[in-house]
Predict the 3D structure of the following.
Amino acid sequence: MELFAFYLKTTLFLIVTLMLAPFYFFILFVFFKWRHRVGPKLVQLYSKLCLVIFRVAIDRENSQIYEQREKGMLIISNHASFLDIFVLSASFGSVFVSKEEVKYYPIFGQIAWLMGVIFFDRTASHERLRVLNTITGKCSDRILVVFPQGTTSRITERLPFNRGIFKVTELNPDISLLPVTLHYKEDAEIAWHKPQSLNENAMRVCAQKRIHVKVIIHAPVTIEHYREKTASQICKRVEETVLEPLQKEY
């Protein structure tokens, strides 16, 4: 039964992806000048379809905080599953900061590049300043997402946040950070952790009859909160805010 669910859901996923990809390429090329505005909306629709395929139900808490936002922000979230991309994209119409390898994935990488995903090489130390400057410049008119843990993990692992990304507050004090917690009820079954392969994790995700996730939106962290504070102190504050709800039962 689990194998059947895996093949059914992955087949539907591939069909939707392959059907929409040519259309998305066409739209992004035709509206190339406005692709950074159009792209996130297209991916938001795609993400909603993927959530239906994988039967993911989203329960948003404190949505009014996001609805009252000013234009542009940097979302800081924990990272549990490949589903996080779909959940956050569907919820916020966001663009992601991603590892360089994703740029070369067939179809996904090209669309991601066209819509303005920020890629970085984790092995190159000189990349950090470039990425920070890019994020700083693009936060003013877009909604960007960063996973400061750097990789997926289970709730019980509580991986610490990498403080490097928080240096954007030193480059541009006007940036608003929006802490977001992703709390999966089925975390023990669907969280992607070592030594699982993507295929093994996908099978466990597909085996779930229903997946429930709380998207908990916290109060923004602005200059009033990090004035005269270091990047490490800001990192600690946001990390505690994001991870604290994970200590409670869903």
About this structure: The chain has one domain: 2-247. Residues 153 and 193 are 5 Å apart (CA to CA). Residues 2-247 form a domain with the Glycerol-3-phosphate (1)-acyltransferase fold (CATH 3.40.1130). The chain has a mean pLDDT of 88.
